Amino acid sequence: MVKITTNTQIWFTSDHHFGHENIIKYCSRPFQSVEEMNLKMIENWNQVIPHDGIVFHLGDFAYGGIEFVRDIRAKLNGTIHFVRGNHDKIQDSQLLTVFKTVNDIARVKVIDPDVPEGIQRIELCHYPFKSWNGSFRGSWHLYGHCHQNLPEDSSFSFDIGVDGFNFTPVSYEQVKTKMNQKQSL
Known about the structure:
Shape: globular
Helix content: 10-25%
Order of helices and strands: EEHHEHEHEEEEEEH
Low-confidence stretches: none
CATH architecture: 4-Layer Sandwich
Number of domains: 1
CATH topology: Purple Acid Phosphatase, chain A, domain 2
Strand order of the largest sheet: 1-6-7-8-9
Distance between the termini: 30 Å
């Protein structure tokens, strides 16, 4: 469980697939090469994430070995908590040399005076859930994996993969706005 305050800058993201040439065609990404894609996503990341920002990456970070992952990570701002995706085959012990935490599922509590009880609970996984811990008590669920191919629903779940956000991480405030819109439906 990671507990953070809203005065800390928090972002969520998934499915960068750094180094994965075929993802360009699979997801109709607007890049001519994997090098162009990698550079643009690093640039977008660093434009929104400050050095002291906190990022929860929900899987499918990069194609390649641990050295390639380290090389990409060294170019990115912020502290990264990592949730493993289906393409993340590197051992946890190696990933822990790159990321702050490594999990299959992560639970986050954000101290936020704007939400009931002052704590927003968020369940993070690479995969979407129909139901999750606290789903009927205001907890949110953020996921990736689907590359924006699931239909939107009224639950407090949200695909935060880069394909839906101009290849840029999504801030806590953006997620909060989205969830408030869902609540008003």
